[in-house]
Amino acid sequence: EGFCRAKKLDDAKRIFKKMKDNGVVPNAFSYCILIQGLCKDKRLEEAVDYSLEMLDQGWRPNVASFVSIIDGFCKELRSDEAKGVINQFKEKGFIADEKAVREYMDKKGPFFPSVWEAIFGKRAARGTI
């Protein structure tokens, strides 16, 4: 977590890999911290890769990690890729809890309308900019 907060993401990834190499299985918290750090640094493809790995390991991204990835793609005007990520997650069995996502977005917003549209398939009137 400290490396992510200090924006030393390559160090965080190195430690993460070392943990796995030494037989320490990362938990959902570890994955989510790394994913959110990567999103903040606009390393979205890496964040998606870790999210998919996380799902393969049987863990689910938290709402903040999920929204961070989608928001990151939409901020870069890559809404179609955001929708593609959501489809990849669905293929792995992950479907975000709509109520939890709405509550998070209302609390942490405003978010671009494209984020709402990517996640919910329609524009939302509230909580958007």
Automatic annotation (TrEMBL):
The keyword Cytoplasm does not apply. It comes from the Eukaryota. Gene3D superfamilies: Tetratricopeptide repeat domain. Pfam families: PPR, PPR_2. InterPro entries: PPR-containing_protein, PPR_rpt, TPR-like_helical_dom_sf. Keywords: Repeat. PPR repeats lie at residues 1-26, 27-61, 62-96. The keyword Repeat applies. Belongs to the PPR family. P subfamily. This is Pentacotripeptide-repeat region of PRORP domain-containing protein. It comes from Pinus radiata (Monterey pine). The lineage of its organism: Eukaryota, Viridiplantae, Streptophyta, Embryophyta, Tracheophyta.
